Amino acid sequence: MTAKSAAAAARATVYGYPRQGPNRELKKAIEGYWKGRVTADALRATAAGLRRSNWQQLADAGIHEVPTGDFSYYDHVLDTTVMVGAVPERHRDAVEADALGGYFAMARGTQDVAPLEMTKWFDTNYHYLVPELGPDTVFTADSAKQVAELKEALALGLTARPVLVGPVTYLLLAKPAPGVSADFEPLTLLDRLLPVYAEVLADLRAAGAEWVQLDEPALVQDRTPAELNAAERAYRDLGALTDRPKLLVASYFNQLGEALPVLAKAPVDGLALDFTDSAAANLDALAAVGGLPGKRLVAGVVNGRNIWINDLSKSLSILGTLLGFADRVDVAASCSLLHVPLDASAERDIEPQVLRWLAFAKQKNAEIVTLAKGLAQGTVAITAELAANRADLASRASSPITNDPAVRARAAAVTEADARRSQPYTERATAQRAHLGLPLLPTTTIGSFPQTGELRVARADLRAGRIDAAGYEERIKAEIQEVVSFQEKTGLDVLVHGEPERNDMVQYFAEQLTGYLATQHGWVQSYGTRYVRPPVLAGDISRPEPMTVRWTRYAQSLTDRPVKGMLTGPVTMLAWSFVRDDQPLGDTARQVALALRDEVGDLEAAGTSVIQVDEPALRETLPLRSTDHPAYLAWATEAFRLSTSGVRPDTQIHTHMCYAEFGDIVQAIDDLDADVISLEAARSHMQVARELAAHGYPREAGPGVYDIHSPRVPSAEEAATLLRAGLKAIPAERLWVNPDCGLKTRGWPETRASLENLVAAARTVRGEL
Ligand code: GLN
Ligand code: ZN
């Protein structure tokens, strides 16, 4: 086929769509079902209605081929577990008795049965349920959901393409089931899994699927030769099937790297590749393998995970290059649109001009359709769209929001020395010891105390105008008083104000920083029925006025013990937002860091001697490919140091991290040069303390001795045992005693009891020194 006919055939498609509905109808129906207020049939009807309206929305926008099977009541990896019959033993009876109820039991657990573990879907903020596999796992095909959803779309007269998690990715995402050796590699089950996929593919073919998409995002990560070999075998075997639909193997979130030649040679009918900036290398790599002769190429040129408008001319030029590489080139978003909110036009509080810079799922559909049209019919067919796009891009590029000369000048003037404390740690430690006068094994918490119903009511009252700012301030102060007096009474050494004024650790700061936008309806799925509304980091960042000082100062006025100031670090501020794509992430992080640096300075000036800058996202934002790690860690650690290094030597800087294994970033943790770090450790029995010690980590650390993820109260003896384990790795002079994370999701009764036990444990172990 010539480039010209490849162009003429260009079609628009997407891989998946937001599931929740315009008003989060799905969340409401599922939670209603959990509470027994919505019947299973009513839930199914709501879900079917949402699928139908999504497909209609896609078709009305001009998307030629719609995805099916991407819908989920909870998570598409869990759906895949059901599809391949890998339901864990402990859930099997429940699933057999009631498929829907059993499905949610796997996702959320029950009183007696633990759920599947949940973890992040690659480097997004979506979480999936981890398949549990072992040498005894027997797979059986259950294509019912996929087939039913395909038939629904076909019945609407649409061209539909089922989307499945591919077999290699499914196995690479799995972990050994409980009781199975940790060395077990799920990928060894490939030969057992492939026949099940073959059966599902045959069922889909029989139900009318011309194409089926198999998603293999795991192949954009560093993969061993054995893993690449497994991918080769998988697609050789599936490709060799006779009774099958055409196969489209999709990858996204990064470049395919070594996996590209493997898939290019595979006997499948098409590849879907990411061609957005972070995966730009796919373009040259595709040329290097000689293109995909005889195959369909689906080009992900519209970023499926950010909320910015596409640069249509740039995408067209990429698409133009791609025409020479394949038999047929189609246009798509780079990944499922699951990761973006539904519709920017629902936003009422964003200035119309700025709103034109934003593209949520619905706007991305239009971009994809425009690009496919431009490709098929030539740019003259989209003259008006191109002109409007150029104008919007120009307005964004020249806006005062994205160009604050003062912020830019300040960021440009930052020197290496600005990101260094004035004295090395050992000297600072001496000064801090003299200044703070803390006992050995000092006790503290991570920052938040229980976010009570009353606090949420107070915030809602303030928003609704039922109370004024002064009334709100009264309620917050009352809460701070209670938190401070409890900590004094309990005997904690370094106190916190409890963060009662914060709705969320990122949103709270985003609302106060210039350059951030808030959305009203920008919900995206985090996991199950949990949706978050990430703030939009749209422009140059500055801090018009102090953000936390008055609360910390108030708390400090109530006590003689040191009160720790509490901030969210620059990396986490980026990680849990939609970040601007018009400059390197490191530049954006530096601007946030400078704003935080001013806050740190103001806290110190207000008499705060201990300041904690939380970076729970440092590990999770680590790029998917190890070649990208050094550059990321360089800007990330620099941004942290820039925000914290302006203080006096005797001011103690803390940081905090959780949710992760830290083994592979200990050097980065060291590079933060924080005086004290608190880390999640209770469930791994202080593993991180041993990792820090093995690295020779020279500063103070508080591996958590209280697992805050459940209401369970650890006994004083249990906390003491963990503390003694910590002491084996970290000497008493440098060991802190604290919980794993903040207490905002906990209730007061267990918080009280647990912290009393934690202080008792510290006293006991101090007595043994
Ligand atoms: N200071 C925050 C809190 O205690 C930290 C939260 C987090 O690490 N996720 O809530
Ligand atoms: Zn935490």
| Biggest sheet architecture | 8 strands, parallel
Give the uncertain stretches in residue-range form: none
Please work out how many helical segments DSSP would assign. Answer: 29
Globular, elongated, flat, extended or rod-shaped: what is the shape?
A: globular
Instruction: Please bin the fraction of helical residues.
Output: 40-55%
- The counted number of beta strands is 22
Average pLDDT works out at: 96
Give the C-alpha Rg: 27 Å
- Overall structural class, as computed from helix and strand content, comes to alpha/beta
How much of the sequence lies in strands comes to 5-15%
Query: Which cofactors or ions or other ligands sit in this model?
Result: glutamine, zinc ion
Give the termini separation: 79 Å
Say what oligomer this is: single chain
- Strand line-up across the major sheet: 1-12-11-10-9-8-6-2
Pathway: Amino-acid biosynthesis; L-methionine biosynthesis via de novo pathway; L-methionine from L-homocysteine (MetE route): step 1/1
Pfam family, one: Meth_synt_2
Keywords: Amino-acid biosynthesis, Metal-binding, Methionine biosynthesis, Methyltransferase, Repeat, Transferase, Zinc
Cofactor: Zn(2+)
